[in-house]
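ok so i was messing around last nite and threw this chain in just to see what happens. nothing serious, just curious
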Amino acid sequence: MSRSNEILQITERVSIPVKELTFTTSRSSGPGGQHVNTTDTRVTVRFNVDRTQSLTQLQKVAVRGKLRRKIDSRGVLSVTSQKFRSQKSNRESALERFVELLRWALKPVTPRKETLPTLGSVRRRLESKKRLARKKQNRRRNNPLDDY
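result:
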């Protein structure tokens, strides 16, 4: 099976063909000693979120919203790996990170359940209100507490 026919399974319903991804290599600043200066071991995976056919419009909006810091103005998501000394390992690492990011971005947001305030928080709020009221009352010219 050639690499161009591979499919990345993101979730149960979402899969992305590897041919939609672009891989570029460059010099790494990671481990490798003098080897780093001579080989392109850093791998960057690029994925055009706007032009993909693998995601619905709603999913594209979710990905663009949650991953906005990793997506450039042209709608391209970039994931880079330079942890390892070999290009192959960095490619696998970048793909794993890419899948993790998309899974996280496509995970539905569970709505917050409203809860009642705890008894302790209610007590603290009322106590602070009483303290503030006493402080303001002490500032009055005809302080009713002066009679006591």
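not much to say yet. Helices lie at 57-66, 87-106, 119-139.
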